[in-house]
Each structure stands twice: as C-alpha cells, then as structure tokens.
Amino acid sequence: MTNTSEMKNIAVIGAGTMGNGIAHTFAQSGFKVQLIDLSEASLKRGMDTIARNLDRMVAKEKISEADKAETLGNITTFTSTEDGVKNVDLVVEAATENIDLKLKIFKQLDAVCSENTILATNTSSISITQIAAVTSRPEKVIGMHFMNPVPIMKLVEIIRGYSTSDDVTTTIMDLSKTLGKVPTEVNDYPGFVANRILMPMINESIETLYNGVAGVEEIDTVMKLGMAHPMGPLQLADFIGLDVCLSILNVMYDGFKNPKYAPCPLLVNMVMAGKLGAKSGEGFYDYTESRKAEKIASQFLK
Ligand code: NAD
C-alpha cells in the first residue's frame, strides 16, 4: 500500500467542471498530475480554465506568478487513458455522471493500472460499491467527492464502499488534508450525504418555479437573504449543471424507490432542450454574455 507521503503522481480522468478543478488543486499542492480527456479540445478548455483561475489568484495576491507557472508545469495532458494512468499512485475519475461509462472506465483502469494504484471516483451519487465490484481490487476503490469550485471549497466527502479497506480510507483522508481540504467520511448510500440533502432542496425550488409560486430571481432571493445561502438554489443548479442534477436525482429515485426524489418535469425538459446551466450558456439564468458565468462565480467566491 502506498502511504500518503509517498504519493507523487495522480491521474485525473475528465477535464470538465470538476476534473480541471481537481487537477488544479493537486498540481498547486506539488503533485504531478496526468489529466485525461477524450479530445485535445476538451483538454485545452480544461487547461484554459485552470490558467484563468490561477490568474485570478495571482490578481488577488494569493499566489505568485512563479506559483502559477509551477502549478501549470505540474500538469501533463493525455487523450489516451492507458498512457495517462501509467505509474500513478492514485486515479481520480471525474468523467460524465453516467453509470455505464463509469463501470467501463473502472474495468479499464483495473486492467491497466499497477496493482497498488488506488482508484477514486468523484461521482456525485453513483454507488461506490457497484463501481468497485467491476474491479479485482474493491478494497482500493473509494469515493473522493470534491465540491465545486474545487480549488475554493474545503469539503471532500470521502465515501467508503462496502469493501473499501481501512488503510485506503486513512490514506485518502490524509491525502485530502495535504491538499488543505477537510475530508469527511460517510457510507455508501444513494446521494451519500451532500446530495441527499442538497438535491431535494434544488428539486423543490424547481418545482416551486414550475408551480408558478414565484419567479427565478424571487426564489433565489428568498433563499439567499432568508436562509443566508451564498447562492440561490436555482443559480447553484446552473453551476452544478442541470444534467448533473437530473442524473443525481434519478440515481436517488431508483436507489430508494421513493417518489420524493422524482425529478421535476421542468428540470427534465430543460435538460432535453440542452439548457444545462452555466456550461451550456443557459439554464435558469442566461450566461451567453462573455464570461458572465465566471463573473457571477467570482463574486460568490469573493
Ligand atoms: P462535465 O460534463 O463538466 O465534464 C465531464 C468530462 O468528462 C468532459 O470533459 C468529458 O469529455 C469527459 N469524459 C467523458 N468520458 C470520458 C472518458 N471515457 N475518458 C476521459 N474523459 C471523459 O462534468 P462534471 O460536472 O465535471 O462532472 C464530473 C463528475 O463529477 C461527475 O461524476 C459528477 O457527478 C461529479 N461532480 C460534479 C459536480 C458539479 O458541481 N458539477 C460536483 C461534484 C461532483
């Protein structure tokens, strides 16, 4: 078993919203990161986002230009998973939230990674136990659920699958602390803790809009000013991605067989129409104006 102090090389699968943030965070803490996505275009988008987020940190004098260059220098990109996971101590999978895709990726990882490599997933809701079961190392499979935006948010929800070992859990808890995060251990049930509580609130806010009780801005204002939430639930849904919210609700609906998790028909319609939130330019709010999503995010991030 690799100890936290011996961990140097990390592979991150997926350079989207979460993957680029996870790569950024490890690289800024001095790890060598191999960032993998399906195309050069996705990798470029991810690397551009990391560079812009580092620029913002330099402008706020949180890091120096040299720190920025070192962080970017710690990241290498790959379009081949097999090449990208060679010689790594840990893989953090942050590909699209889709069970079939994740099972396929973990089967491949199990086949090509060294037997000591720990396999973590950033899934928001899919069973760690089910993912682990397609590998020959279920004791080395664990949930490492970072929050969005990863470089800023302190929490990492650490999810133990049915077979995850104590050693692996301790290693990943300690590793999260070396990233400056606060790891919190939870067990493997649909939605874990974070989304089991958050998603019904987001879904209810969409249902409130769908029922005509109030408009988008009004619902968000009530929750921001009334409950001291830094961001309203509809705007948060836009930043998470409406497709991601829908997938998580479906996993909980299927997992618990309880209608309280049934996704609101308005959410289903918006996803079918391609209105996925900030990443597609439109969700409950319009983000088509240049960099509008980033401007809103930076206000929220202070
Ligand atoms: P995203 O759609 O922004 O990015 C997913 C990326 O994965 C894309 O760039 C896609 O090209 C890539 N990808 C798909 N298949 C791949 C493969 N086989 N190999 C390599 N790359 C592949 O999604 P996201 O929001 O970053 O979500 C990623 C994961 O993180 C999901 O499991 C999601 O549930 C979880 N998550 C999301 C959030 C959030 O706020 N968005 C928060 C916590 C966890």
How does this structure look, described?
The protein has 302 residues and is an alpha/beta fold. It folds into two domains: 4-187, Rossmann fold (3-Layer(aba) Sandwich), CATH 3.40.50; 194-300, Orthogonal Bundle (N-(1-d-carboxylethyl)-l-norvaline Dehydrogenase, domain 2). The chain has 13 helices and eight strands. The chain has helices spanning 17-28, 40-59, 65-73, 81-84, 99-112, 128-133, 166-178, 194-210, 216-227, 233-240, 242-256, 265-272, 292-301; strands at residues 9-13, 32-36, 75-78, 90-93, 118-121, 141-146, 155-160, 182-187. An eight-stranded mixed β-sheet has the order 3-2-1-4-5-6-7-8, sandwiched between helices. The mean pLDDT is 94. Nicotinamide-adenine-dinucleotide is lined by residues 13-19, 36-38, 42, 81, 94-97, 101, 105, 122-124, 145, 148, 240-241, 244, 279.
Give the overall form: globular
Identify every distinct bound molecule in the structure, by name, code or SMILES.
nicotinamide-adenine-dinucleotide
Provide a count of the helices. Answer: 13
CATH class of the largest domain: Alpha Beta
CATH superfamily of the largest domain, by name, is: NAD(P)-binding Rossmann-like Domain
Main sheet overview? 8 strands, mixed
Order of helices and strands: EHEHHEHEHEHEEHEHHHHHH
Helical content (DSSP H or I, runs of 4+): 40-55%
Span of the ends, CA to CA: 40 Å
Rounded Rg: 19 Å
**In percent, how much strand structure appears in the residues?**
5-15%
Low-confidence stretches: none
CATH architecture of the largest domain: 3-Layer(aba) Sandwich
Query: Which secondary-structure class do the elements indicate?
Result: alpha/beta
Nearest-integer average pLDDT: 94
CATH fold group of the largest domain: Rossmann fold
Walk across the major sheet and give the strand order. 3-2-1-4-5-6-7-8
Number of strands: 8
Number of domains: 2
Protein name: 3-hydroxybutyryl-CoA dehydrogenase
GO molecular function: 3-hydroxybutyryl-CoA dehydrogenase activity; NAD+ binding
Site (Important for catalytic activity): 145
Binding site for NAD(+): 14-19, 37, 97, 102, 124, 148, 279
